[in-house]
């Protein structure tokens, strides 16, 4: 009996010890690292990208990426990049106890190579997660499902890591679980790390640089060493690719301080912005004379058109595009539209817009805008775009006739400007308008490359426009590619697809649709309609997560007073950087054969009629993307010797 009692007591003691180790042991939290190309569920530590069911087999990388992956060997992070490029990784802090972790401090030293230190410090962001409660409509196979998705990136300068420094009550404490994000049963806190490599070869000599990232909680510190190998080549300071987001009224309605912050954020991430609603004050006198007032327009926009907005004089430094003007700018012109919207200048409805007096007003306005902008804008750097929103996606002969009329008018009166039409136009339509337009933002669902080549040969610059996966034809509902609950790789693959198809560039609708509520509600588009067309019979409603929105509004989360980028915006940026790698290799080779072969390893046939129902349109293996990029860099380095 005594022996049995001793056994029981030992068992109880061991059980208590084991439970204690789980909750209060010597290792209550862990520090690991992930590549920037995947997202982690903060509740269950599942790699969200591994949920994709669009490709039944052939996916690799199902192992535990938290313990080891292609940039992290379990002990050290290894990054590689060119001058003028951003490189990134994610630090994962996991709570292994049942207690809240508070007073978390994080620090990362500048990269050093012996006595040489990069003069640009790493940028740290706290990842904020959004709760997808309804998957995006029309994507039952390709959605990654419901649950928490890391997306917004909050600059660490707004995170309160030391309560002794609190000034006032509105703070963002650094805790796990996140006090503000309010994720039930949150297990991990994720930190995004960006490092911009200086463009100047004297400030970023080729070689391997070292740093260390340190987390401290309650007197306990843990570190992960980080190496950065800088290759002996650079990406251009200027964003030559001109990948763009367009959003009518989003920028023009902001106050100028917020507007500057948004433009600088996107310049830093190599994505151009267009808003065609910057209308100068215009007055048409009784005698038909047109007077345009330029004071407010110039005060607000001249700095962007000359590049001054992206200099230290306006607080911009340490990033791509320094001193460079906007890559694209949508001119203010418009015409009477299908939703009873007025034009700029307003010359009435289609039945009267070509009358001699009205045509004279429109022509005079074109000439005055051209005369005013010619000394201010370098068309070799800034593409001046005429986009007539009143004719957007108009699929009937009367609209085509108007496109021809205005396209020819602008070719005559403003030859430096481009005339772009957007939509899924058929061969019948293109045969009418093709000679009068310069640019065509083609719906990806209509992007049949054999047909498009004919228009490329005519000199039309084609832009990929719209969604990137087509489970159904109805996925062409929107002109945006920015869905939170679809595979992250989509936003990188579009740039590679442009290379494959020799497309001029890509454009997507929306910059910050629903960016206020986006912090707490990822559904940026919600539409219920009773009468669905036959093609939409399966879905008589629409809900989309993150559609048309890749940034988050300041002032919505305590202490965060500037717009915050999303992980999806960073992924777009990575695709644009990749495109410049491809361009550089082709230039060094004098042809695109080797670059094309690398692209073909990743990109299949993603767009056009054949893509409908085919989700296996590019590789979803993030490690393969990493390997191809490394191979690409190796070829560039070898060719430069």
At a glance:
The chain has 641 residues and is an alpha/beta fold. 25% of the residues lie in helices and 22% in strands. Helix 8 packs parallel to helix 9 (567-589), helix 9 (567-589) packs antiparallel against helix 10 (593-602) and helix 9 (567-589) runs parallel beside helix 11.
Highest CATH level, the class of the largest domain: Alpha Beta
Name given to the CATH architecture of the largest domain: Alpha-Beta Barrel
Strand content: 15-25%
Q: Strand count, sense and closure of the main sheet?
A: 8 strands, parallel
Report the principal-axis shape.
Answer: globular
Q: Helices and strands: which structural class?
A: alpha/beta
Q: Distance between termini?
A: 83 Å
Total count of domains: 2
Query: What is the β-strand count?
Result: 25
Low-confidence parts, pLDDT < 50 over ≥5 residues? 4-25
Average pLDDT rating: 92
Q: Considering DSSP H and I runs of 4 or more, what fraction of the residues is helical?
A: 25-40%
**At the third CATH level, what is the topology name of the largest domain?**
TIM Barrel
Query: Helix tally?
Result: 11
Gyration radius from CA atoms, angstroms: 27 Å
Strand order of the largest sheet: 13-12-21-20-19-18-17-16
């Amino acid at each position: 009996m005594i022996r049995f009692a001793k056994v029981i007591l030992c068992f109880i003691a061991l059980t208590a010890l084991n439970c204690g180790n789980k909750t209060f042991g010597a290792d209550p939290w862990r520090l690991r690292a992930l590549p920037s190309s995947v997202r982690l569920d903060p509740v269950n530590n599942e790699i969200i990208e591994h949920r994709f069911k669009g490709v039944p087999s052939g996916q690799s990388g199902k192992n535990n990426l938290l313990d080891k992956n292609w940039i992290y060997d379990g002990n050290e992070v290894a990054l590689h990049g060119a001058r003028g490029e951003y490189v990134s990784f994610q630090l994962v802090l996991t709570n292994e106890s049942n207690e809240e972790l508070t007073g978390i401090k994080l620090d990362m030293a500048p990269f050093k190579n012996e006595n040489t230190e990069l003069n640009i410090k790493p940028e740290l962001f706290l990842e904020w997660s959004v709760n997808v409660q309804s998957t995006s409509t029309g994507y039952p196979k390709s959605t990654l499902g419901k649950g928490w998705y890391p997306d917004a990136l909050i600059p660490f300068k707004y995170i309160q890591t030391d309560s002794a420094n609190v000034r006032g009550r509105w703070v963002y404490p650094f805790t796990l679980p996140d006090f503000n994000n309010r994720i039930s049963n949150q297990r991990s806190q994720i930190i995004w790390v960006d490092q911009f490599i200086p463009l100047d070869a004297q400030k970023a000599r080729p070689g391997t640089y070292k740093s260390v990232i340190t987390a401290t909680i309650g007197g306990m510190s843990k570190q992960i060493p980080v190496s950065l190998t800088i290759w002996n080549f650079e990406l251009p300071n200027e964003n030559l690719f001109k990948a763009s987001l367009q959003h009518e009224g989003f920028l023009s309605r902001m106050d100028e301080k917020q507007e500057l912050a948004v433009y600088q954020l996107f310049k830093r991430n190599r994505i151009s912005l267009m808003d065609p609603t910057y209308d100068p004050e215009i007055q048409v006198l009784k005698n038909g004379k047109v007077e345009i007032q330029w004071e407010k327009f110039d005060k607000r926009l001249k700095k962007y058109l000359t590049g001054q907005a992206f200099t230290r004089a306006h607080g911009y430094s340490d990033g791509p595009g320094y001193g460079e003007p906007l890559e694209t700018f949508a001119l203010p012109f418009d015409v009477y539209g299908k939703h009873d919207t007025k034009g700029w200048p307003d010359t009435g409805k289609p039945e009267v817009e070509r009358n001699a007096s009205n045509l004279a007003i429109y022509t005079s306005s074109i000439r005055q805008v051209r005369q005013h902008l010619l000394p201010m804008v370098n068309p070799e750097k800034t593409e001046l775009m005429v986009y007539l929103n009143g004719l957007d996606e108009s699929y009937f002969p009367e609209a085509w006739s108007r496109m021809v009329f205005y396209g020819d008018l602008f070719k005559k009166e403003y030859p430096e400007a481009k005339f772009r039409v957007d939509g899924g136009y058929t061969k019948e339509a293109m045969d009418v308008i093709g000679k009068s337009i310069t640019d065509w933002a083609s719906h990806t669902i209509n992007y049949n490359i054999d047909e498009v080549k004919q228009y490329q040969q005519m000199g039309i610059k084609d832009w990929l426009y719209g969604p990137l996966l087509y489970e159904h034809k109805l996925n062409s509902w929107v002109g945006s590619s920015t869905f939170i609950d679809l595979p992250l790789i989509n936003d990188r693959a579009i740039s590679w697809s442009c290379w494959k198809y020799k497309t001029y560039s890509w454009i997507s609708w929306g910059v910050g649709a629903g960016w206020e509520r986006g912090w707490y509600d990822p559904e940026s588009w919600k539409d219920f309609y009773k009468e669905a067309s036959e093609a939409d019979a399966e879905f008589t409603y629409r809900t989309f997560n993150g559609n048309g929105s890749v940034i988050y509004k300041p002032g919505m989360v305590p202490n965060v007073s500037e717009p915050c980028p999303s992980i999806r915006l960073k992924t777009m940026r990575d695709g644009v950087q990749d495109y410049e790698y491809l361009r550089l290799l082709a230039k060094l080779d004098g042809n695109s054969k080797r670059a094309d072969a690398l692209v073909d390893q990743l990109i299949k046939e993603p767009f056009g009629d054949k893509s409908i129902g085919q989700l296996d349109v590019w590789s979803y293996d993030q490690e393969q993307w990493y390997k191809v990029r490394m191979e690409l860099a190796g070829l560039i380095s070898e060719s430069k010797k």
